[in-house]
UniProtKB/TrEMBL annotation:
GO terms for molecular function: metal ion binding; metallopeptidase activity; serine-type endopeptidase activity. Disulfide bonds join C218-C266, C247-C254. InterPro entries: Peptidase_M74, Zn_M74/Hedgehog-like. It holds the Pfam family Peptidase_M74. One of its GO terms (cellular component) is outer membrane-bounded periplasmic space. The keyword Hydrolase applies. This is Penicillin-insensitive murein endopeptidase. GO terms for biological process: proteolysis. Keywords: Disulfide bond, Hydrolase, Metal-binding, Metalloprotease, Periplasm, Protease, Signal, Zinc.
């Protein structure tokens, strides 16, 4: 019980500190409902979840289901994004993170086909999705745990015959300047078109990118701009952008994130750029969030044990 209360306190703290403005907490913000769901199960299992999920090299032979929250869950019945397709290549194959729920793999294939219509783009170079059974990772990423998140490189692919070795050594390119307050010369209308296409896709819940990219799109969008509300600001999303899908219909254990705020969010994006260029004085009442310990099996929904032990 003590463990459960601590877990709840930590999660509520995380949820509270993430409210409002540009912040790094949004990517892995856990809603209160997620905290209660996660804390109800597996109470006695104190094993560190990333060691277990990080050791799995194949998906579970189960019906596909996203279980838990984006930053606290696992994925049953993931499928593998093919290492190479007509309009994409999966990068950094050694990480074995080209696994996701079928809806995510479908989405990425569709988006890559659109990207291939853009000048200079043969398709998409696709970075991390999830591990074979999702779950926390040994390195990187607070989220990407339930097979519904994917990182997409900003580097326009000029060819789709990269060898596995090239996919380890090639780097993406940054598209920002001034710490996210401006786009640089590598940013192009094609980047914006691909982001818009993703944001307009009904499967997409939100997209993370650096502030100036959103401002660039805000300044040029015409007509219905409500899709811009799905474009969310997050530091360090300058070499890649991150697409998060909504919980698939029929996945009862998938925990939805708080919906994005109404409106296009363009004023917020402009303010974020202004704050980068002219940082406001630090808030004297700011309390840094407590350090986050390892996610334990007891922090995950109970079904994640079955995902781990399934064939
Ligand atoms: Zn990501």
């Amino acid at each position: 019980m003590v463990r459960r209360l601590e877990t709840l306190a930590l999660m509520v703290g995380l949820a509270a500190c993430g409210r409002g403005g540009t912040n790094a907490a949004e990517e892995d913000r856990l809603g209160f409902a997620g905290a209660t769901l996660a804390a109800m199960e597996n109470l006695a299992d104190s094993r560190v979840a990333k060691r277990l999920f990080g050791a799995m090299d194949s998906a579970s032979q189960q019906t596909s289901e996203a279980i838990g929250f984006y930053s606290r869950g696992c994925a049953a019945g993931n499928i593998q994004l093919a290492e190479t397709g007509p309009t994409w290549q999966a990068m950094r194959l050694s990480r074995n993170r080209n696994w996701g729920q079928p809806i995510l793999v479908d989405f990425l294939q569709d988006l890559s086909a659109f990207a291939a219509t853009q000048p200079g783009w043969a398709g998409l170079y696709i970075g991390d999705l999830s591990q074979p059974r999702g779950g926390p990772m040994l390195t990187g990423h607070a989220s990407h745990q339930i097979g519904l998140d994917a990182d997409i490189w900003m580097l326009p692919p000029d060819r789709l015959n990269l060898t596995p070795a090239e996919r380890e050594s090639l780097s993406s390119i940054r598209t920002d300047a001034n710490r996210g307050a401006a786009v640089n010369g590598a940013w192009s209308p094609a980047h914006a078109a691909i982001l818009e296409r993703a944001a307009r896709d009904p499967r997409v819940e939100r997209i993370f990118v650096f502030p100036a990219a959103k401002v660039w799109m805000c300044e040029r969008a015409t007509g219905d701009t409500s899709w811009l509300g799905k474009i969310r600001l997050l530091a360090n999303h300058n070499y890649h952008f991150h697409v998060r899908l909504s919980c698939p219909a029929g996945d009862p254990s998938c925990e939805a994130q708080d919906p994005v705020p109404a409106g296009d969010g363009c004023a917020e994006a402009r303010q974020a750029v202004a704050n980068i260029l002219n940082p406001p004085p630090p808030d004297p009442n700011y309390v840094p969030p407590p350090p986050r310990g390892d996610v334990l099996m007891s922090d995950l929904p109970g079904q994640c044990l079955a995902v781990l032990t399934a064939d």
